[in-house]
Amino acid sequence: MLSGKNILIGITGGIAAYKICELIRMFKRENANVRVICTPNALNFVTKLTLQNLSQNEVGIEEFEIPDFKPEHISYADEADIMIIAPATANTIGRMANGICDNLLTSVFCAFKKPVLIAPAMNCNMWQNEIVQGNIKRLQECGYEIIEPETGFLACGAEGIGRLCSIDKIFNRAVNKLFVQKTLSGKKIVITSGGTIENIDPVRYISNYSSGKMGIALADRAFELGADVVLVSAVDVKRKYKVVRVKSALDMLEAVNNEFDNADCIIMAAAVADYRAKNISEQKMKKSSADEISIDLVKNPDILKEISMKKFNKNSPVIVGFCAESENLLENAKEKISKKGCDYLIANDISRSDIGFSSDYNEVVILDKNGIVKKLERAKKYDIAKQIFEVIYGQDGADKNNRELCTFESC
Q: Taking CA 190 as the corner, what is the angle to CA 329 and CA 259, rounded to the nearest 5 degrees?
């Protein structure tokens, strides 16, 4: 399956280093060419001879071993199709996040322009340290994919999150990366994300609990599939694709209208405030002796409905809406899609604590304009995003607004 593919594996100094021997074997069984780079500390856990025998290649350790007059870090970076760093220690993660190139592995990482998978493994307290999490976030913002550690018994004797994820997961994620089809190449996908903010005065506002994670996951997936992505975001996010930062519902409507004419698909994943203050105070409102106050609210524009009404010919973009419901999920979603006029409506249940706002997981029901329904079972929001694009565009990336979905009952 992997004949002709060049896999570069970076191993750092963690106890889980021994598990990477099996990962090398899995790639070799599929006829991939595997090269390995170790940090010097990694050799405290696994030997160079073992890795050379398994990979059938020399193992890189020292930065200034220069065969054939090639700078070694550039040579490794040019030859590989994908780089996997596992286990990634807190130390190496910090170096990579801050562009420190003080060994062969970090130098290769800095020069690598193709897909990189990073699988951290460390003590639970180290993983939860704010500095480590900040470094993880910075790597994600730069487009590197983190395969998060799992919860379980750790080598230090503690119980918690920090175990290296399963080798099968790393292998499968790498294969998916290697064979991802750029099915959305040439398409412009506009996605809204986050909860809008409606000012009351300079220090107070109306908003909601939306984290923006679902919209960001959709944008990341669209970018991976080769789309020209525009993320209209009410939360701060840094990505390689275009991000338009907005605040209020009116800001978001203007941004979406600006991107509408040449868009192929618009996905309204943002949680837009239904109302805004009629009059915004220019000064902070002072507390008075009254036990109650009243703030006049006016309705915000229904952005999803407005852009759905702009569809006037077959070249207009596919419009996808989201709705958050706390009861009668399917019934409310069916009513909304008929009122909004969008091509698809994706409904999620916000009453559940294991999915939705701020969670990394979601479970949704997708309705199309013909009333056909598909349920996507609970999964990571990125995996939900992958399935959403499969519904909209099909496996081959072709537009398929009339593609049959299963009935809700059969899902």
A: 125
| CATH class of the 188-283+290-393 domain in this structure | alpha beta
Q: Which pTM does this prediction carry?
A: 0.77
182-186, 190-194, 399-403: least confident range: 399-403
Alpha-carbon span 92 to 99, nearest angstrom? 10
Residue 119, amino acid? A
Question: 3-state DSSP call for residue 233?
Answer: strand
* Burial of residue 334, with CB atoms counted within 10 A of its CB: 0-12 exposed, 13-18 middle, 19 or more buried: middle
Is residue 156 annotated as a catalytic residue, yes or no?
Answer: yes
Backbone angles phi and psi of 303, in degrees to 5: -60, -45
CA distance 228 to 93: 29
Domains 6-178 and 188-283+290-393 share a fold: yes
Contacts of 149 (CB under 8 A, 6+ apart): 119, 120, 121, 122, 127, 161, 162, 163, 164, 165
Q: Where are the beta strands (DSSP E) in 43-143?
A: 59-60, 82-88, 116-120
The alpha carbon of 269 is separated from its chain's Cα centroid by a whole number of angstroms, namely 14
- pLDDT, one tens digit per residue, over 319-355 is 999 998 888 888 888 989 989 989 999 998 888 888 8
Measured over the CA atoms of residue 355, residue 356, residue 362 and residue 365, the dihedral's sign is: positive
> Helices 381-393 and 213-224 meet at what angle, rounded to 10?
60
Which CATH homologous superfamily contains domain 6-178? Flavin prenyltransferase-like (3.40.50.1950)
State the DSSP string of 12-46.
-SSGGGGGHHHHHHHHHHTT-EEEEEE-GGGGGTS
Closest by CA position to 152, among listed 138, 164, 168? 164
| 249 CB neighbour count, 10 Å cutoff | 23
Q: Which listed residue (38, 101, 110, 156) is catalytic?
A: 156
